[in-house]
Design brief:
By secondary structure, the chain is of the alpha/beta class. It has a single domain, classed as Rossmann fold. The chain has helices at about 10-25, 35-40, 60-70, 85-95, 105-125; strands at about 5, 25-30, 50-55, 75-80, 100. The longest helix is centred in the C-terminal third of the chain and has 20 residues, at about 105-125.
């Protein structure tokens, strides 16, 4: 079973995401802040990370960089209320695999996360070719 880490400070959003991802048969762990999220990432193996922005205690871009450095090959999705294209581009260029604005369609979010995980697992299953 795939395990997802959700880093979100908003309790109501955590409940929504727990119901959504559990209904999709994912195991879900939650971190209420970026410090505990980074600690948990170093302790367990995950299939994906979902980060809700902003965090009052950290720059979103700095946090994104730290997560990407810890999980180079792990699908990483940003949730944010900002629909500003410059914000989206900044996070995607920093290493996030996808950016979904709040409010979101639960079905679309689940489908995007599933697609990211499917894409990453197909890449990791590819065998390197040997030169002739």
């Amino acid at each position: 079973m795939d395990r997802i880490l959700v880093i979100a400070h908003d309790g109501a959003l955590r409940k929504v995401l727990e119901r959504l991802f559990s209904s999709e048969k994912y195991e879900v762990d939650f971190a209420p802040n970026c410090i505990s999220g980074l600690e948990i990432l170093g302790q367990k193996t995950y299939s994906a990370v979902v980060l809700d922005l902003p965090f009052p205690e950290a720059s979103g871009v700095d946090l994104c960089r730290k997560i990407v450095n810890l999980i180079r090959d792990l699908p990483f999705l940003i949730l944010s209320a900002s629909s500003d294209v410059a914000d989206k581009l900044r996070f995607l260029e920093t290493g996030a695999d996808d950016y979904v604005t709040i409010p979101f369609s639960p079905n679309e979010l689940a489908a995007r996360l599933h697609a990211l995980m499917r894409h990453r697992s197909s890449i990791s299953l590819e065998q390197p070719t040997t030169p002739l």
